Amino acid sequence: MSVMAASAATRALQGVLDLLEQAGITATRDAGAFYPQPVGVLVGLPTLTKRGLASHTFTVPVLVVSGDPLNDELPVDRVYALADDVAAVLAIDQYRPSSWAGGVNAEPLPAVELAATVTVTADPQGGI
User: Fold this and answer.
1) Structural domain span for residue 60
2) I need a labelling partner for 4 at 20 to 30 A (CA). Which of 83, 94, 118, 123 fits?
3) Quick check: is 127 in a domain?
4) In a domain, 40, yes or no
5) Cα–Cα distance, 7 to 1 (Å, whole number)
6) What pTM was estimated for this model as a whole?
7) Closest CA to 47 of 126, 121, 99, 115
8) β-strands 55-66, 109-121: how paired?
9) 120: Cβ–Cβ under 8 A, 6 or more apart, which residues?
10) Is residue 111 included in any domain, yes or no?
11) Which residues of the chain have pLDDT under 70?
């Protein structure tokens, strides 16, 4: 039986999803099926920022997306409260307003963008 080891980027992405799940925050990486009702968390593809002898460091984008326009206090509170929770779980000290367009959404939706830094070390099978 042959098993293909997950790449370092895939493990970084899964690590972010696992941390959020352990904290009770539902997140997905499936942008095609994602629609926030009323808010949702979407985890993007990792960017390699540093390569070491036995590790890789990635920046993983995390978007907290609002399905409602941010023109009233309740949706603004909702999206920023979830962004604060995500930031606390992933030890992120800053985020910024953004937007997200994808899936079935014709128009971009308001979002808060966070960037998680993840370092992945060599796996036990000898690869990274």
Assistant:
1) 8-121
2) 118
3) no
4) yes
5) 19
6) 0.88
7) 115
8) antiparallel
9) 8, 11, 12, 15, 55, 56, 57, 58, 128
10) yes
11) 1-5, 103-105, 123-128
